[in-house]
Amino acid sequence: MAFKTDIEIAQEAKLKPINEIAASLGIPEDAVENYGRYKAKLDIHALKNLPEKGKLILVTAITPTPAGEGKTTTSVGVTDGLRKIGKNAVVALREPSLGPVFGIKGGAAGGGYAQVVPMEDINLHFTGDFHAIGAANNLLAAMLDNHIQQGNELGIDTKQITWKRAVDMNDRQLRHIVDGLGGKVQGVPREDGFEITVASEIMAVLCLAADLKDLKERLARIIVAYTYDGRPVTAHDLKAEGAMAALLKDAIKPNLVQTLEGTPAFIHGGPFANIAHGCNSVTATRTALKLADYVVTEAGFAADLGAEKFFDIKCRMAGLRPSAVVIVATVRALKYHGGVPKADLNNENLAALEKGLPNLLQHVSNIRDVYGLPCVVAINAFPTDTEAELQMVEARCKELGVNVALSEVWAKGGEGGKALAEEVVRLCEQPGSFSYSYSLEMSIEEKLETICRRIYHADGVVLTANAQKQAKQLADLGFGGLPICMAKTQYSFSDDPALLGAPKGFTVTVRNLKVSAGAGFIVALTGDIMTMPGLPKVPAAEKIDVDENGRITGLF
User: Fold this and answer.
1) Is the pLDDT of residue 323 over 50?
2) Exposed e or buried b for every residue in 231-262, given b needs 16+ CB within 10 A?
3) Is 385 helix (H, G, I), strand (E, B) or coil?
4) Are the C-beta atoms of residues 510 and 524 closer than 8 Å to each other?
5) How far is CA 166 from the centre of its chain?
6) Which of 81, 221, 341, 349 is the most exposed place for a label (fewest CB within 10 A)?
7) What distance lies between CA 510 and its chain's CA centroid?
């Protein structure tokens, strides 16, 4: 029996006009700005006086593997499941980046019968938010270089420029470049580089800003370079924040779409969780909490990255208090963590599953014991899962006092998410003692040490001589009280992607620290993490096509 592809399922769906979706949430007509029939932006100012009433549920996952986990699919499916059991629920997700869409991962709109639609639009240009962010990023870069070209009144040291240009594409050729060549009138020759748009600080700023006023204030604080005497140079010093905010005035408005089952879906912002804070926008989350009783959101990659930053950065900054957490796992992925090659994951292997389970259990323990939140493990079902394997996962989780729910949302949509939805509702009524993993009163070094020990279960953190110097400089400049945004491989609790499972006896090396003053956090770069990915040997783009009628194929 041939299975339909995700895009075939999405293209066969009968979508409701977006105004009907908005009306189902009680959104006033004058707050809806249509982008065609099935997409809209919402005017947050028209909704600002509504009280927040919803319970916030985070969907996170075990450490990613090539076998896949299905976090977005589960987020969509459990929200559809909540609607199936009579709850007023919405899902709040990030926008996909074109980098992974054309690279190795493909789209990020869910899968099977648990998708957000229109899938092609969401995965490609959508409502233009990422283009606006890239334009604002590059306007600031242009104004910076123009200031230097026109006499450099601020005394900017071209060897200490920290601001890069951005493009929403995997393009390793642009990681390190030299520009301004060709003579005096062509600019000042210097080393430069590009980041992928989702790694831009402007993406983080947009996602953490409360409104347009806050957005402009955060943009003004962005540090782009340092002077010869070590003073930071900001976007405000370049008089850039007004024009940048003008480019972003529509991008800050949350986007409204729907799932295959007509469940309202907010999709807004898209920072990566391995190099940024990995959560959808505060404006979308807060808007959703005003309009629904249950809001399901996700954070990128595993709980050591996305969930940690969701709690310690986003929730802390926005004053959000989550009610429950869903941790997504698959039997196949756990066997991979137990040492089974991808080609052999369809075979029952209880010994490998036992060996891989500590990865899941460590994430569960972090959520319960560090953050004080109730959680459920969602096993994203595959036909090859055996009863013995499922029973082993359930038994080991119950030893920690955590229930397991089988999620069949890929094959059955909301109907396959009802059991998980029932458990989520139960957990939302449980008393929680939510807390952060570290205090802002700690020094930069103490925060790094705490994250590495409490969340990664490392023996500690090692700062290179360069990172030690940067930590002191940032503290002297008054940034010591900011939270930490760890830039780390998503493939391991450690900073070594080859260490699977729940490794022990390792340290994490921080090689670079930089402040994102507009976003309001310090970025700590570890291992070989890069802010501009490259394409794989066989990019997903090779399989994507469009026919003469505009029908897209190959997108997944």
Assistant:
1) yes
2) ebbbbebbebbeebbebbeebbbbbbbbbbbb
3) coil
4) yes
5) 18
6) 341
7) 21
Encoded amino acid at 98, one letter: L
Q: How far apart are the first and last CA of the chain?
A: 20
Q: Phi then psi for 531, rounded to 5 degrees? A: -95, 5
Q: Which of 23, 448, 518 is nearest to 248 (CA)?
A: 518
User: What sign has the CA pseudo-torsion 539, 339, 509, 488?
Assistant: positive
How far is Cα 542 from Cα 554, in angstroms, rounded to an integer? Answer: 9
pTM of the shown model: 0.94
Report residue 456 as tokens.
């990664």
Q: Is the separation of the CB atoms in 321 and 61 below 8 Å?
A: no
Residues identified as active-site: 71, 73, 94, 105, 273, 301, 382, 410
Tens of pLDDT along 369-406? Answer: 999 999 999 999 888 899 999 999 999 999 988 999 99
State the DSSP H helix or E strand holding residue 241, giving kind and residue range, or none if neither: helix 241-248
Give the other-Cβ count within 10 Å of 541's Cβ.
16
Closest CA to 369 of 393, 401, 339: 401
Residue tagged 């003008």 (tokens): 246
Pairwise CA distance, residues 9 & 5, whole Å: 6
Q: Which residue from 342, 376, 408, 430 is spatially nearest to 66, judged by alpha carbons?
A: 342
Q: Which residues pair with 475 in a beta bridge?
A: none
